[in-house]
Every structure is written in C-alpha cells, then in structure tokens.
Amino acid sequence: MKILCFADYHLGVKTYGKLDPETGLNTREIQTLGILDEMVDYAIDNKIEVIIAAGDMYKNNLPTPTLQNEFNKRLKRASDAGIIILLLDGNHDVSRMETTTSALKSFDTFDIPNAVHTRFHKEYNYKGIKFVFLPTYHTKEQIEDIINNTDYSDPVIFIGHMTIRGALMNDWLIEDKEIFIDVDAFKKPNVLAVVLGHLHKHQVLCKDPLIFYTGSTQRVDFNEEKQTKGFIVLDINDSWVEPEFIEVQSQNFLTIKMSLIGSENPTKDVIDEITNKMAKVKDAIVRIRLDVDETIRLDEKKIYEYVYKLGASTVLDIQKSFEQQKLIKDAALNEHVSIEKGLELYYKDKPRSKERIQLGKEIIKKIGEE
Known about the structure:
Oligomer: single chain
C-alpha cells in the first residue's frame, strides 16, 4: 500500500503576493492551489491508495467560499479516483471551542465519498491498517491515554497535529503554552508510523517506529527560505515501511546580503552580486540587506528595475544597516585609546565631523585645565 502524507498547507496565505485580475485570487493562493494539483496528480499517477492530511489545510478557520471550493474540487478529484482521504483539523482549521466550525466542514456536510474528517480522537480501518486520529486540542495525558488504550492487534498509523519534544521548530509558529509529547509514548508494538503536522520543518524523529513531520508544502516567509518543501510517500508492505520525500515547487525566497562599506561603486557592486545569483532570482520573493555607512549613495531605482528584469516575483524595500560600521568603531573604541582619539573615531564619517572633533577637543582641553 502507498500512502501520501502532507500537512500545514495553509491555503489563504497572501504574504508578499498580489491580486491576480483573472481569478480574483492572490498570487500566493494560486501557487498554493498549484501544489495541491501537483500532489493529487502524483497520487493518481502513482496508484496512491490513501492521502493523509495532518492538519492546517487553511490559514484560518474562516476561508472564503472561493478558496473552499477550489480546495474541495482538488480533493474530490482524488476521491473520484478511489483514493481514501483522511483529514485531521489543525489549530488553524478550527479553534479550541468545540462548537466552532472547522474550515473543513464541507467534508462532513456533503458526505464526500472516501473522505474522513475529524478534530477529535477517531479510528478508521482500511485494508487491515488502523488509522488513529489524535485530537487537535489535547493535554499530554489525553494523548498518552489514547495511545495506551489503542488495540494493536492490527498495524496502526497515528495521525497527529502537535509538538513532539525535541523536534526542531520555527520560533514564530510556537504558541506560549505549547504541549509537548514524548517520542517514547508512541513506541508500542505494531505501530507502523506516526504522521505529524504543526511544525513546518520536515524531519524524521524516530525510525522505529517511523515518527516524522511532513513539513509544510509552501514556504510562508523568509524564516523558511532554506527549507525544502514537499510531501511524504509511505510504501507499506506488511510491517515494513519505506518513506520517500517528494519535493514540490514551493515559492522561493531569496536574501541577498552584502557589505558596501568601502565600496567605490556601491550600485554596481549590488547589481554584480544580484547577477551572481541570477538563477535564484527568477520567480523569487527577494530582499536585499546591505551594510552601509553614511557615505554610501545608491541608485535604488536602478537596482529594483534590474531585479524585476531578471524575473523576480516581488522585491522588498532595500534594508540598510549601519551596524557593521558601528561594530568596527566599537572594536576600536576601547579603554586603551585616549579621549581625544576616541572622539576622532566616534565622529569619523559623521556630518560636520571636523567641526565636532575640534569643538570636542577644545572642551576636553578646557576641562583638563580646570
């Protein structure tokens, strides 16, 4: 049996995108829907029998009807192909209140064939494998109680949206009161795999049993610039499980960072650096971070025009930092230099530096005489 697993799809993220006049959707939403097309195509072409969606299909639990329709159409295509779809709510799909509506409610309302959806503990059996949904909002004790009371006479696959102790995290994703579950809690006989969502970095936490985060399918922002995005395919043969990571065409982010301190032609130097990264610029969301001092003069318009000419999707405002210059000065300014020398170092390159240094020296001299 082959099972496709993904999570943290976050349909509805619009960060750094723009309105597409033809569809009325944000360009980031169009990209995200394209990833789901890619996954469904893969599932149909590669005879996938089960798709597991381990939470956070949407950015929030109130997506627009248009987004819901587009999402549902794609999963219905998988359902029509006879693929079982197991959907667990994530914390973005539904709030803690049990009476609130899930963004995935349509899978309950319209009773879509082959689709199973829940935010609570639930079991579903298919071809001799027991799929156990773990509740989205839970205590450590609740999860351990479910695990300890599960019948393991058949092979088990757990599906959870939670934080496992020791997993690598994106700081911005973690809430103030995160509940951590220990890996050892899942070390039971006949556990084939634990499929996890919630943390955006793909990672395998344990190989026996296989415990892993699928990672998110789309780069949300620059925190995930260097992360590879995709989905996991489990190839299951009796008690043997082989995972494979399949990369998808996620939105690229690119940071161009350089120091211009001492540059004689800063605009040309920036353009040369962008040229060196030409292959990464196309279709990327680009930010340019420059270490500068007060003498640097840039033709920012020329830089923006060049990056867009290379095919960048979005270019953020150029970020200029004076921190490196400050660090250089701080390194020179120490207890071993005289007050006069320290004055010269501090006001070097500042406007009207000669006048300020001269005035300062006169003040130091006067104080010394008194």
